[in-house]
Here is the input.
Amino acid sequence: MTDLVVATPVFLDLTFVGLESMPTLGEERFAGELLRSPGGGAITAVGATRLGLSAAVAAPLGDDVAGDLVRGLLRDEGVEMVATRSAPRTPTTVVLPFGGDRAMVTVDPGVRASAADVAGQDPRAVAASLDQLHVIPAGVPGYVTCGDDDSRAYAGRPPAALAGVRTLFVSRSEALTGADTVEEAARSLAELTEIVVVTLAAEGAIACSDGELVTVAAERVERPVDTTGAGDLLTAAFVWADLRGADADERLRWAVLYATLAVTTPTGVGGAVTEAELLEVGTARGLVAPPLAASR
Here is the structure.
């Protein structure tokens, strides 16, 4: 049995660190360094592994240099690659962090994980994107994220298949209901799924379950280095806290803290701390360690 199987697409992230400014059309700007790291769903898988869960990635990669690099980096992290088919090329994202935010450009051939590869790992939980609800085996908790493309495709009409999902994660800009406030959006979406988490970037997040709202503010980070992957790591920590038996309020607090800690380091995986490190920081802030946390 695998604790978490990640079906969400995986990318090779090319991150330009230390940009002097964001270029406009016709301009050239310089960065201090170029970093290569696993992106997308791989960030969730690496975060889960560093938090002590077993994790596998079912997203197909290309049989190319980029794919070999991502596979090697994930293997070094203890993440298993279980996709039985390949993509024509590995999805790749150029990341430009600057001024506490980032811009991205992505090439994605659109080949997705198969339901058979996911089910073959006998998962305790599955992380998938909104267009992949069909890969979550019946009876297995699904943790579903929404990207820019999903928010455009499903705006105002969330899929009915959300009814069987454990948790839906959306950002404020990705809320799919057309509600006037994030609280209204959370309550509306919570009618479709068990738990809804609306992420609010530097402000924290809101969760709704059974009509009850939980709001968690993020600690202020004076100089965020790279916000890429913060949402992926929030998902990883929420799954970790959920599987470790944390209660509703504490799940979101641990998840927001994990994401907040990550933005001070370049790349999504670069900011993913270990379970012991997270517990040390969290308990110092008054959070209650999940009952089944391995490092308690």
Observations:
- The mean pLDDT is 93.
- The chain is about 25% helix and 25% strand.
- Residues 76 and 161 are 35 Å apart (CA to CA).
